[in-house]
What does this fold into?
Amino acid sequence: MAESNIPSTVTTTVPAPWQRAASGANLLAANGTLGVTIFEEMTTLAVRTGAINLGQGFPDEDGPAEIKAAAQAAIASGANQYAPGKGILPLREAVSAHQQRFYGLTPDPETEVIITTGATEAIAASLMALVEAGDEVLTFEPFYDSYGAIIGLAGATHVTAPLLAPDFMPDMAALEAAFSSRTKVVLINNPHNPTGAVFPREMLQRVVELAARHDAVIVTDEVYEHLTFGAQHIPVATLPGAAGRTVTISSAGKTFSFTGWKIGWLSGPEHLVAAIRTVKQFLSYSSGTPFQSAIAVGLGLPDDFYAGIAATLRHKRDILSDGLKAAGLDVFTPQGTYFVNVDTAPLGISDSVDLARRLPELVGVAAIPVPVFCHPEGAERTRSLLRFAFCKKTEVLEEAAARLATLRDRL
Ligand code: PMP
Ligand code: GLN
It folds into this structure.
């Protein structure tokens, strides 16, 4: 092996890129060591202990058979080399048609849509294209872990506005105060992970007005767009004044239950999409050629399919929520996503990070502590909150509920 060029002691006050990312991302790195994400930590723990994994959000059943068949057919027919950097045309067309069918938006598949390696790459490429060191990126808090990491890697400053229990709507005064002349991007996530909040039109419209006033770009992560339970999903790009400054991100992982395929996409005005595409080509160039074909088929599925996934998940939400309530926890009923948050304080718990690390051994269930999605102040506010994923078979959720019912006796 070649000798490493990396000096053994680094004397610089500027943190290395991985340190910037880690400090933005999760508590595991708070002690200065390189950490894995909370999702990987909890899944590893669940596997080691044989616990039911309600931590990392992935379904335990595959998505529609016709989408799998389309991927197999694409592989068999030889669609196995690089896709174009911006994605195959049938999928870009399908993304555009989906935006039109559900929201009346008409992005041009040639210039206003790109296919990415999951929403994760769409987020990374957008931030890297749009922000520079010294710029501020504004998100809600709690925030999805990759946001903090990528803002850190981009050398930007991460400013947050809190979402407050029990309904996890933003404190509007704090949101307004969080904007500044350096706000370059407002990164919205709606429906929101980890809280399950679905933001109403008036609130989103206010964000658009504030972004316009500060000349900020809105990047909106709408990967859970079809997973809502009664509350209407309002894409930011449909609001007056938004389209010209908004990049919309989504992913096949959530809608079609193929999280492992990592097919995502984004759409927005040509000048923003062109800048993001420039960065994206140096991240992955392109990926998943046969999966791209298959997701084009998926996006064309009839409206019944989309209504069906939401109805199924709503039922699962209710099974798990009832179990969590019966276990003595305070449940914050989500309006969207496949996550439900609970307050463990009624059981006398004040540190959900510690509890999450012990929960698999205690009762055979894994969950994610909400403070890991926060900076220190937000972590204090959410210190007793835990997030459970309910994208699992109903019998698995019932078994998890039965196990959690024993928690109060095992603490
Ligand atoms: N954004 C949010 C809010 C998510 O919850 C996730 C994944 N669960 C992603 C982005 C990443 O999506 P993908 O797996 O398509 O990269
Ligand atoms: N987004 C999924 C979650 O919130 C996990 C994705 C990942 O492991 N990076 O649980």
In short: The longest strand covers residues 157-164. The radius of gyration is 21 Å.
